[in-house]
Amino acid sequence: MIDFDMTLPTRLIFGRKKEELVGKIIKEYGYQKILFVYGGGSIKSNGLYETVVAKLKEEGIEFIELGGVTSNPDVSFVTKGLELIRKEPVDFILAVGGGSVIDVSKSIADNFYYDGDPLDFNKQKAKPVKALPLGCILTLASAGSETSSSCVISDYQNHFKGGYNSETHRCLFAIEDPELTYSAPKYQVGAGIIDMMMHSMERYFSQSDDNQLCDDFALSLCRNVVVAARKLLTDPFDYDARAQIMLASSLAHNDLTHIGKYRDAWYIHPLEHAVSAYDPKVTHGAGIGVLYLGWAKFICHLDYPKFARFARVVFDVHEQNDEKAAIIGITEMRKFYLSLGMPTTLKELGIKESDIPSIVKLASGNGTRVIGHYPQPLEAKDIESVYRLCL
Length: 391
What we know:
Strand content: 5-15%
Number of domains: 2
């Protein structure tokens, strides 16, 4: 186990109707004027917008609004938010939505005290040293941004998508009511399930000690999500299943499942970031699932025992031969994605074979960087092979 420095500061306020406490909670922290950030309109159709506004007003908390944030959010949302709060300063940011809304809020929080390009942090040109405090009401179990230190922002004009990690922007609190996820479209729910599992899977598939506790955490979390997801296929309004999935979203990406392991173990996320940078219409979780299948086929021969253990724990595969068990596990994951109604090929996402060279250039930085480190770093030629396995 390597040395580590772990911070888990986010307060989880979990359960039915907990969003009604938002005004009291913000007041407890002593904040008086906030930026209220939300997405494309679902919170207005399901009544959550009215609830939040009413509870803020009850506690005398002033607010200005930034609405309309989309998935794979463009940096223009960050720029607009900064313009708002530099004209009319606030002391807190409240994000109401999923990972995209929270990431925009994080970027605004960090850039409020920074005079450079809002994408400098995402491009690793600078590191934030101070941020406005923020909290969130989660409406989609998926990205884990509610408890993570990560923040991913796109630049549509320049086909860029990148993330950075900083303790400055971890949410002070995350309000989580599983019933708020009932209105999410099935496709978004499926994409979210894939994304949260991958946050722990990528950590699990990185290099491990013989007896690594966080690997057990990761495997148990993934198995729990699979069981809960199968219940939702029968009853989309199964509260306990929704609750299990919502909690897993927060625990999968708060550092618990990589404690004592190298942080830069990511393969699938950077591969997908290049795809949705090339075409922002690609849903992140959907792309993640497709790329896992290709990557696993490409790489599993280098560590059959690890892939076999995943198959046995998560999918109850009883095959004793590691090579066979590993391959069965990949097949079972594909079946699981199909059961959720999710794509399993790049073609289903609208990506053509002729698009591959351009996407490889984005993923590899025109051949100047590799992705991941264990069991094998991916150079440009390897990246291309993975993409082609996904077609």
